[in-house]
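cache lookup: miss for this entity combination. No prior model stored, computing from scratch. Input as submitted by user K.M.:
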Amino acid sequence: MQTTFPRLMLDHAARRPQAAALREKVYGIWQALSWGDLAVLVRHLSGGLAEAGLQRGEHVVVVGENRPRLYASMLAVQSLGGVPVPLYQDAAIGEYIFPITNAEVRFAIVEDQEQVDKLLELRGPCPALTRIWFDKSRGLRNYSEPGLASLDSLVDAGRAWDTAHPGAFEAAVAAGQPQDVAAMFFTSGTTGNPKGVVHTHFTLLNRADAGARFDKLTAAEEVLAYLPPAWIGQNIFSCAQWLACGYVVNCPESTGTVMIDLKEIGPTYYFAPPRVFEGLLTSVMIRMEDAGRIKRGLFHHFMNVARRVGPDLMDGKPVGAIDKLRYRLGDFFIYGPLRNTLGLSRVRVAYTAGEAIGPDLFTFYRSIGINLKQLYGSTETAVFVCLQPDHEARADTVGVPIEGVEIRLTDSGEILVKSPGLLKEYYKNPAATAEVLDADGWYHTGDAGFLDASGHLKIIDRAKDVGRLIGGPADGAMFAPKYVENKLKFFPYVKEAVAFGDKREKVCAFVNIDMDAVGNWAEKRNLPYAGYTDLAGKPQVLELIRECVEKTNADLARDELLAGSQISRFLVLHKQLEADDGELTRTSKVRRGAIAEKYRPLVDAMYGGAAEQFIEIAVKFEDGRSGSVSATLKIVDAKTFPAVTRKAA
Amino acid sequence: MAQRKIGEVILDVKNISLRFGGVKALSDISFDVREHEVRAIIGPNGAGKSSMLNCINGVYTPQEGNITFRGQTFSHMNSRQVAEMGVARTFQSLALFKGMSVLDNIMTGRNLRMKTNIFQQAIRMPFWSGAAEREESEHREVVEKIIDFLEIQAVRKTPVGRLPYGLQKRVDLGRALAMEPQVLLLDEPMAGMNVEEKQDMSRFILDVNDEYGTTIVLIEHDMSVVMDISDRVVVLDYGKKIGDGTPTEVRANPEVISAYLGTRH
């Protein structure tokens, strides 16, 4: 697509000014912003920014939830040739210092008082940050800091500027070229400073367009924008593809109402990371367990039918007439209402990505008639690399390379990608750029995987995390920690797992229980508990988790490559792993190294053969105070199974 | 913290004495409340805080003394009159309809401002030209703004009885706010709350004061909260006023210290 974001926006505004572009629920009512009104808003915002002195190529930080005016602000920045840099709205103050300094940011556009307070505190370490505009004025009435103003005032100033400079906006948009930088995304990064991933209008729009063609997306789609706008996926779905297709992006009322809003909007094109789908399923299952006997019986009966028949129907395979009839009955009584309750009754295409999805979970959604598929991509590849075609969705692959994409595997199993959507560079970091982009234009993903017989890509783990067991019965066997952790996490009772084993003689693991699922399980057994720590330490809970671990081991034993990765000892952590404590990344991936370091006594005890171990660690509370929690944790031995070697058929 | 404009005296309480038979609940209490300020009434249990609030609110009629509100002096008032003059209150023990939704509960706060009568609301006939409908949507708008303000959108349609206590308190505040009061009386808004809920509530009280300019009179026995959010504090003990002033002044007052911490005899 040889065009730019602002040009596409103006194009929609010219062709169908009355059509809804964005919707937001305000005061309990969905209110639409048409493409025509959006164009006017963007024009005024950019006028205001021009008056403030925004230069071509200059970075502007945007922080907040999904709000129409923040999206309009990004377009306004792009109209002037500036580069919006969305940052995670829930990041701690310190995490903003690097991006703001690195990108030499002078201007910031933020959502509300919370963000304003954070940025005002940053004026010490980042003196260049002179102007801050906010969308919601609540609580900010009496702030008199210099350079702080509302978006309303920016719009007003822009309106005046626009009248005084007729044609300036059009000229600025026309001057923007597809090869210009469109946006920069900072990757969370497990180690060191985050890296600014630079994308041009061309890279983002090319991939957005390719993805849209793959799934035949139209202007009639409805999308709910509820994930952080700083994450490239949300940006692709609610910016690049929004402009490429011209569909409607809906912004939820607040973070707490996402589920209600989802149901009201009924999106047709939906993305969620596996944990969201998992959370939805858990809540359904918990409610079903509490339902009356007839309802429960009906549910389980028809879910069995769905499990048997649903996936085949979804994949377009032939199904017997009686089964078809049964499924249709189930659809009337159970699946239809269930889809409606989940807010997914209108979904035409649903994607999940970011982490492996459990086969049961994946099959569940497909069996009740939701076209859930997987995709593969990253910030550096502008998301779309591999997608699953409609009738070829599987839980253990991530799909086939889509148009424009070439895939190659190195000898060590690392996946290399060539695509028009690859990043331009890491901002001001040629060394890191050279590390991932080689001279021939291949991008090194850092993921280990392979293409299966049907041409689908299968991911095992991060290439650097794949290790070897040394010594012990499975000497020299491959160890893929994430593969093991994911298998554990497929159990509803396990929230998070961390597996250790590289360069060791056996595999041991930490487990975080899922408070909702285990809490409910405990209540059903009249097992009293005082809180998370107490529940996590109950012998009955340890026994429950041991069953999960042993089932995982049995499963792993069937895998020739990874049979050695069976978990021989584990413990249940007394606190939840948190991003605020540096244990998870902002995208909720476990930071294995940091955890091993922090909980060293526990790791040592597991390998040392101790039956229990005392641990005390510092924690940070949500309000910024810190304290410490301590506990004596029991270490449990789990049964392992001999590897089942299957003869090739 | 920014400067708020504290105005003239809006509520003046003069020489109030209240007796229940032989029990003297309040004796000779005088204090004033200025427009836009946050005024706290504190004191140990049984000091007469709630009785004081009930006198202002018109629930009790004091035997002596009078209350001047916006230049009009009263020796006794009834609750409805007080409400009509723009004084709203919340209750220590919640006064909400447990089976009704958050939205409907807050809507009850609009009751005094409804102009159409119950028949118009119940029987919607064309010849009333939809007055009730129009009015309802106007009131709904006010209520929605309060829901947005108190950040309870997610529970808009949830029956109040199913909400945690802290949220119920917030709904109670919302119901009082729906009257668009000039003076808001809060009876122990933070009783029974955990630290986080107290912080939230404090923020909402300050925000109400800041955004709507509402004058706030609150009763509280948690000293730390009171000292943080109020402009001036009245201290009662055994029905007598023993201190009055800014939090710093009150904190230094020896009588207050002895009432709270006891004295050496």
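stored under new cache key. The first strand of chain A starts at residue 20 and ends at 26.
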